[in-house]
Amino acid sequence: TMEVILARAPPHTQVTGRLRMEASGFLSGGDAAGASAVPTTTTTTTVLEVPATMEENAAADLSSMPAVGAFNPSPFQSVENFVTFATDDAEVEIEQEGNVATFASASAPATPRVSVTWAATEVESIDAVTDAVTEYVPRSEVPSVVEVTLTLPPVVPEDEYIVRVPGKCLPAGECIGPLPEFTARERVRHKVLLAGLCATRARQQAVGALMRHRLCPSVVKNGVANLRGCVCTNQTCGDYFRLENEAAELLMLEEAQRTLRGVDPVRWAAKYTGPGQCPWPVKDDETEAAMRKLGLAPSPTCSVRLICSYEEHLRLVRMAIVGAKSHLNIMSCYFFANEAPFVNIVKHLLPDAAKRGVRVRLLLDALPAQSALIKAKLWGPMTKYAQGAKQRLQFLDFYTGTLPEAVKSCPPGSFRVAFFKATDKTNGHAIKSHMKMFAVDGRLAIVGGSNMLPTAATGNNDCDCLVDGEAAEALDANFAKVWSEQTGEDVSVTPAHEGEAAAQAAAAALARAAAAGHSTPITPAEERVLEQGTVGDAVPTLMDERHPLEETLAFQWHERNVRFVDVMSRPGSQGEDAILRGVIGLIDSAKEEFLMCMGFCALHVPLVNALARASRRGVRVRLLLNSHFSCDLRPPMTDLIAGARALLVAAPHAEVYLTGPREAWDVRDEEARGEREAFEPEYEVNGCGDVATAPYMHPFTFVHAKYCVADRKRVSLGSWNAWARSAFHEAEMNLFFESEELGEVMAEKWLEACRLHAARVKDATKLAPGGGIFAPRGCKLCTPFGGFVGDAVERAMNGSLPLEVERA
Q: In whole numbers, what is the pLDDT of the chain averaged over residues?
């Protein structure tokens, strides 16, 4: 508890106070098994002499002294957004930078639940200091008690990466990094995996054909019932080319899978289920007001707009590039060289920007590029005759022709491209960058689930938002950190700022020369510098100019002055997922409704636990997930369905919706109220009449969006998927918002996507292996990622989830 005791002395004396802080925190640290130990508790006490917030008044005019309520605006000072407290035996500090608060001691990292009390409620307590105080402090203006509780996430040391592997990054002086291709051993392994998948699929198809044959007696059908293939055999892996993609996906995951053999899911989950471990990081209105009274820095804010359509997204990106004046920073995991809008950006728009002086930096992940190239080269000279030949050649042409030619056409250093390549320093498994962002001039940024652009397949069923202000600056800083780690180039200073610094340095040099009496002739360029201003004067920069989109969007933001927190996760051997902590905090903050839409999802114990706890306290919990009817990846399907099953076992009232055919009983609220027309499914069944196993000829859409909404006023949005890969293998970037306008429009987006594309599953038994049309039976085409989801199912069924743990 922080206690601030104000002491008021005569007006010519500076006022000081005493501050006491007691913080209980939780220690976290990695261990050799690859998962953090169960947190322990520590307590730290601090006493600090607080400097005055009022200036010295040498005159004895008591009437000039402000009332307590008018002091600016706190009992202690905050310098450059940092407030520091110190003790005699250990250094302890709370850092408040924007809205990111951390707590650390000299001995060990800790996480406090900090209660802050500004106590100045009794006029008598001030009278005790000096009688003179009562002459200028009216009783009515004494501030009331302000109580604030801040819960901060654990401080966990970052996993270290090996990133500057020779030939795997962007060499100094080069504008494009080497193409990231699999090694010879990896190419052989890809073929082995592909052969196994082909054999599995052929066996499943043969059994399916036997089952559907009209001459096949029922006794034979019953006898081979357990041998029937998964219901998705002819959908997600409906052709050989798709199997090549699945084999590449399994190959990319193999190293991470080996790392997980030493991870205990129970110990890993314990990091996220204890009290105080997973707070919602954005301050609400009440806390924000109280913290401002205490003098802590205000939360960063931005304007926010949900991008509502595929066409709008394309238009915004084009306008952002065309109007850029300083720099463009782009991170994308996948690049779809088979779609014209993607190619047009790299081939034309970005080079045009670079040629007019805009600094362009593009960071693509290496693993998807490796996958595309191995498929493009697998058949060698016979590629043009292979299945999917057109797409193979499009990707090969992009990586070997279009991309390097676009970079080469620009002035040296203006357009640089790197491929994210990192391995965990402890266990050596590959780290994948799944982060997506598009930032322009440090003034505007797009963040969400789309890879540079939404694809034609996902269309309007992705989720991205446009932000400005401090959010755009924060995303720019995140990019600069990752880019510097990958390439060694510092892009935290923009070209505009570089020009400003150079101008000021030149002006300073000339001023010093003049002061020393030198009569060196001044060049025209130097004369222009001097005309702009000497040191200390504001030098006009491109950063001072508004982007044309800012003028266009003046009245089109969904909401302005929105508080936010940006979080960039750093997965690795510890299994630390900072975004997961925030999402659990979001679930715990919900009082009436919680909506989740996830492109990929594999609910583990921390999420099942939080969702079940919310459902049991009366929150309407609703999840919209993909299934084999729409998903573009096959390996996660077993984990996806098993995680949904675990949730329904633990929280039977939770509403789980999966993309797929709806049944007649599945009537939505808005349809029952007459606000929408009744949904009439138009599904065709191909083959036999066994609906449980027959493949559907379906129009189901892949819902690629990744967002959560609590009570229609708190939002999580970004690239993060709700699975353990985000803790061990895939780096993500999300924004957390406090915004009623954004929450409302995203809730409507969720409801419409759910109504059009998904079916509700009520019975957990329908999600048991082979239990229904959504549940795969499991085979080599399905590969669980570690034992995290299996642990959730087991603990949900035996009732051992830690549901009794209360929210901090």
A: 74
Residue 40, SS3 per DSSP: strand
Checking 402-410 for CB contacts under 8 A at 24+ apart, the result is 402/337, 402/343, 402/346, 402/347, 403/176, 403/346, 404/176, 406/346, 406/347, 406/350, 406/351, 407/175, 407/176, 407/351, 408/175, 409/351, 409/355, 410/175, 410/351, 410/354, 410/355, 410/360
Higher pLDDT, 361 or 100: 361
pLDDT band at 660 (very low <50, low <70, confident <90, very high): confident
Average pLDDT of the residues in 326-341: 94
Please give the angle made by the CA atoms of 219, 222 and 223, to the nearest 5 degrees.
85
490 pLDDT band, cuts 50/70/90, is very high
Average pLDDT over residues 313-317: 93
Supply 638's token pair: 């077993």
Question: CA 439, CA 549: separation in Å to the nearest integer?
Answer: 13
pLDDT of residue 604 exceeding 90: yes
Q: Are 600 and 723 in contact (CB under 8 A)?
A: yes
Q: How many residues are recorded in the chain?
A: 808
H or E element in which residue 44 lies:
strand 40-50
316: nearest Cα among 447, 492, 415: 447
Q: Rounded to the nearest 5°, which phi and psi values hold at 64?
A: -85, -10
| Angle made by CA atoms 479, 484, 488, in degrees to the nearest 5 | 155
- pTM equals 0.79
Model confidence band, residue 234 (pLDDT cutoffs 50, 70, 90): low
CA nearest 175: which of 403, 341, 373, 336?
Answer: 403
pLDDT at 112 over 90: no
Q: What are phi and psi of 514, to 5 degrees?
A: -65, -40
Which residue has tokens 């029922």? 218
Q: If you ran DSSP here, which 8-state letter would residue 235 be given?
A: T
**For residues 677-715, b (16+ Cβ closer than 10 Å) or e, as one string?**
eeeeeeeeeeeeeeeebbbbebebbbbbbbbbbbbbbbb
Per-residue pLDDT at 419: 93
Distance CA 314, CA 458 (A): 13
pLDDT in tens, 443-478: 999 999 999 999 888 888 999 999 999 999 999 999
CA distances from 469 to 248, 297, 466 (A): 40, 16, 11
Convert 753-776 to b/e letters by CB count within 10 Å (16 or more is b): bbbebbbbbeebebbeeebbbbbb
b/e 349-371 (16+ beta carbons within 10 angstroms → b): bbbebbeeebbbbbbbbbbbbbb
Helix (H, G, I), strand (E, B) or coil at 697: strand
What per-residue confidence (pLDDT) applies to 59? 31
**Rounded CA gap, 338 and 762, in Å?**
39
* 551-559 contacts, C-beta under 8 A, 24 or more apart: 552/319, 553/303, 553/305, 553/466, 556/305, 557/303, 557/304, 557/305, 558/304, 558/305, 558/306, 558/739, 558/741, 558/742, 558/745, 559/303, 559/304, 559/739, 559/740, 559/741, 559/742
Closest CA to 636 of 730, 545, 560: 730
Note the pLDDT tens digit of each residue in 693-702: 444 455 688 8
CA distances from 241 to 191, 251, 432, 521 (A): 13, 16, 23, 70
